[in-house]
Amino acid sequence: MIFIELLKAVFLGVVEGITEWLPISSTGHMILVEEFIQLDASAAFKEMFFVVIQLGAILAVVLLYFNKLNPFSPKKSTQEKKDTMSIWYKVVVGVLPAAVLGFLFDDWLNDHLYNYWTVAIMLIVYGILFIIIENRNKGKESSINSFQDLTYKTAFLIGMFQVLSLIPGTSRSGATILGAILIGTSRFVATEYSFFLSIPIMFGASFLKLFKFGFAFTGMEVAILLTGMIVAFIVSVIAIKFLMGYIKNNDFKAFGWYRIILGILVIGYFIFFG
What is the DSSP letter of 268? Predict the structure, then answer.
């Protein structure tokens, strides 16, 4: 029995690791996957699991960008350390809107918006927006091509776009990247900034869920959670490297079409078989 549950955790870890970083909504995919793969656990544990599994994914960002985000590296000059601290200050500014509103409305969002209709609609809406915005920006030069170009005002505005990702199916990285591109940020900086914003957001969300769940885990629950997190970490490393290589020569329209097609399939499935 535990073997089957661990296999489910492995599959969920793979889904989390892929969808957390690609702009296709990890929470949305996890809600949809749960329709077909049910963990044999309490409702409270599953609610916590689908958020805390993100800790595994976020550790991939910490690993891959450790040098860039480490202001205490002895290999960095004084100016480089200041530039690194500047990135962190801008991350804090960008995180504030979603952190505050997420904390205030976490329970309401869980009760009212965590369903397949919300996910499907948001998949389609943001898929269309990706295509429209990429077509609109085709051939345009971005004005923000490095973190030195990114002002605190711009960081806050991008953070406001991240608030949209509190709605399941939106995609945290998708909303952040779309907003950043609209403001004039290059795809590369927008994508990296979305990764960095995820560090405090996902740590905060995970510890909030852990606090609400409590720390009285059974042995089975610990095994399931750790398995999901470890797999999410490994797959995330691969997904992040893929995405950063992909955007060097491609735009995000392919992800837009994927979202639209998936959203339509979801609606069709639940209308005819739900």
Answer: H
CB atoms closer than 10 angstroms to residue 62? 14
Binned at pLDDT 50, 70 and 90, residue 253 comes out as very high
CA distance 161 to 216: 36
pLDDT in tens, 190-229: 999 999 999 998 888 888 888 888 888 899 999 999 999 9
Q: What are 67's two structure tokens? A: 């040098």
47 is written with which tokens?
A: 């609610």
Q: What is the pLDDT of residue 49?
A: 93
Q: How far is it, in rounded angstroms, from Cα 145 to Cα 124?
A: 29
Instruction: Report in angstroms the alpha-carbon separations of 120 from 46, 110, 211.
Output: 21, 16, 30
Buried b (16+ CB within 10 A) or exposed e, 73-96: eeebeeeeeebbeebeebbebbbb
Conformation bin of residue 184: beta by default, left when phi > 0, alpha when psi is -120 to 50 = left
Domain extent listing, the chain: 2-272
Amino acid at 262: L
Using the predicted structure, report yes or no on whether residue 28 has a pLDDT greater than 80.
no
Structural contact between residues 273 and 144, judged by C-beta atoms closer than 8 angstroms: no
Residue 198 CB neighbours (<10 A): 23
Q: How many CB atoms lie within 10 A of CB 209?
A: 19
Distance CA 273, CA 240 (A): 35
3-state secondary structure string across 102-132: HHHHHHHHHHHHCCHHHHHHHHHHHHHHHHH
Query: Is residue 33 within 8 Å of 120, Cβ to Cβ?
Result: no
> Per-residue pLDDT tens for 57-71?
999 999 999 999 999
The count of residues in the chain is 274
